[in-house]
Amino acid sequence: MSKATPQSHVFPSDLGWMSLCWSGERLCRFTFGHPSAAAAAASLTADEADAERADPPKWVAELAGRLQSFAAGRAELFDDVPLDLSHLSAFQGRVVKACRKIGRGKVRTYGELAQLAGAPGAARAVGSVMARNRFPIIVPCHRVVGAGGSLGGFSARDGVNLKRRMLALEGAVTGKPAQRSRFHASHA
Hints:
This protein is an alpha/beta fold. β2 and β3 (about 25-35) form a beta hairpin. The protein is built from 8 helices and 6 strands. The chain folds into 2 domains: about 5-70; about 90-185, Arc Repressor Mutant, subunit A, CATH 1.10.10. It has a 4-stranded mixed beta sheet with strand order 3-2-1-4.
């Protein structure tokens, strides 16, 4: 079976310009926080940048609307978004799957996420997976924090400041583990 031609869609939001790239029925990449439509389009890889620009299919248009709603502060779920994870190893796929289960307003440490992915002690490896996340917000890497209560890193434009803003938008409590205890009770 041949792979479908990638397509892309760029649109504004309260968290900056966003870009979606998909192939067939799966999302290939999502970026956000860009100052302009041109910057959002330029955020795609070379193959994705060559993607055909057309009116998005219904599922992509609806996803764009949900992402704009999320950026405006409304609660949105993205666990139904079909993702192309073919670039991931089995371990990386488990990390992404576990991360997608972190609910709005909740945070997990890199170590907790490693344990949930079946690899206790692999916090650094989890950090690497999160740093290369092709689907921020949809795979909510902004909800993963350091063990000591630090926010860790964030590769989107404006880095940790944007991560802090997104967590505040969701009402998440961050800081030392004792300060997060009311959110730590469940793994979902």
